[in-house]
Amino acid sequence: MRESCIFLMLSLMGLSCPSAQNQYYLSSSTGSDGNLGTESEPWQTLEKINNTVLNPGDTVYFMRGDSFFGHFEVNGSGSQSNPLVITAYGVGNKPIISGEVGQSGGGDFREAILINNNDNITFDGLEIQNHRSVTRAGVSDLESFGIYVINDSNYEVMNNFTFRNMTFKNVYALYGVDPSDQDTFNQFKVSGLTFSSPWGNKSNNNNLQNHINNILIENSYFTDLQRLGIHISNNAPGNSNYRNTNIIVRQNEFYQIGGTCVLPTRAENCLIENNIFDQPGAKTNAKMIGRGSAVWNWYCINTVVQNNQCLNAKGILDSHGIHVDHHNVDTFVQYNYMEDCEGGFVEILGANERAVYRFNISVNDGWRENPNWSNSDHTIWLNNKVGDVSGYESNNSYIYNNTVVINKSADEAFETAIDIKANNTRIFNNIFYAINGSGIGTQFLNNQDGNINMSHNLFFGNINNGFINQDVSPQQNSDPNFYNETLENGAGFQIFANSPAINAGTAYSGVFAQPSINTADSQIFSSVEAVPSVDFFGYSIIDDNTPNAGACNAKNGEFLSVDDAQFQCDVKIKNTVFKNKLFLKSVLKPYRYILYDVLGKVQQNGTINPHTPSIEFVNYLKSGVYYLVLKNATTTASWKVLKIR
After folding, report:
1. Which CATH architecture has domain 572-643?
2. Domain boundaries, the chain
3. What is the pLDDT of residues 445-500, one digit of tens each?
4. Among 75, 345, 519, 585, which is disulfide-ready with 525 (CB 3.0 to 4.6 Å)?
5. Which residues have a Cβ under 8 Å from the Cβ of 326 and sit 6 or more positions away?
């Protein structure tokens, strides 16, 4: 009788009872809300699943090839051991969920999917859009989200969100804003995926001390977004210790994003790694904001940004590869490849403690021409402002073992600024290289750090003498003798055996000791070294009292060759385009294999032999171009291969 009463109550409320299997199927093309919600009888609309209470372990399936327009509000939570799963079924393209409903639907929704005070949820294999063009009552015309995750509960923590194999695209508000108007720019809230923890109770504006914990975003694709790809936001006041925590963003691709790709604000323990950031600050749509570094953080603690590609960042302000905004503690920018970023290489704004750029490669960054800001393009910029207020010098910033190259042709030559207003800055063991009429620090040079420690940098080409003179032990006019500057990736900036960069650095001790990442603070850093043991390319720096200058610590001219295939053996690859496995033939003897990414970093290695002539790759290997090298005692072969989704 009690179960009958519960069923009657749910029916009167318009809520569906959960099926025994806790699996719900939706197809906009073949379904009906009068169906059972099974694979053979799917439901049709988002309204139907909105009115279904979801429980731990439930799975919601959207039909591939279908599009669902409306507003999906996830109605329930999973648990840590049994998350809710929202995914796809069938064959074809990813199902699309969009908040675009037009005038007939009352105006376009603020977001396509809303998660409000629910947690333990996994999304896998969906495409999210939300290009708003029609005003909706109660929603700002300047807001739009693909998925909006919000914790506006009181004193609660929302845990465990996973987004995997997702696509976020075509997310726009009704209008754009002027990117040069800083206040308007800061308030412009458009993103593919946002996590928000407001501060202040909805009814009485008292402290709402909440946050979101354990976020994983991986193997997803972001493109054609008006401003942000991912925004992690906590609106606690500046002196509060409340932050969203334990965030991983890895192995994603961001392409033509109108603003920044990943923006953590008030986050603690954030790992951003192995992503491709291509054209942040894009203006491929007139409504795009057109300004953005690939990544920047604000009021964060323990941020590690590593092993990423930052390409073609654009914008009238900021728009460096990766920049450190103000009031952060322990930000580590390491092992990244940055190229053609309009604003420049290093940007550290006011009131930071221990902002670190190490073992990065910067190529042709800092070419912006802003008529309202003559020194707007920087090789190094440490600012002492918070907003428009000066006096917030950042302390203990480290810039070391980076390779900084400007080598465009003479007709594209440009000059950069070096502008330092900070305390206790350390700049050591770097290569600064400018040729063909370009210059580093020659446009503008300013150093207002009376405690700067600068030593053992290698300078070649047109470098401002005032900058060189700050170095107590410089190596001047020394061509680092790069392997091949014309290669379209970082591998070309390895060095030959006769390079003057070899053993040219100072030891990592005393004032030049390497700063340590607080890896013990979170499990998300379990695969991160507290102190680097290798350079950009994987060469050891352990116990090296005379490290090289620059990002390559090879001592004997050894390089990770990733040129086009040079075959010296009979082995052939059956499928140079692969998903999870490569098959080889004519494997007559054992070989060691090494798989490099386009940056020259080892992603996987092992052995093959005549009995097992195939290579199965790890699940987390991202799609894209790789280089496979086979070696034994007498022969070597290499191929360019392509991993697809």
Report:
1. Sandwich (2.60)
2. 99-277, 293-559, 572-643
3. 999 999 999 999 999 999 999 999 999 999 999 999 998 898 767 888 999 999 99
4. 519
5. 298, 299, 349, 350, 351, 352, 385, 386, 392
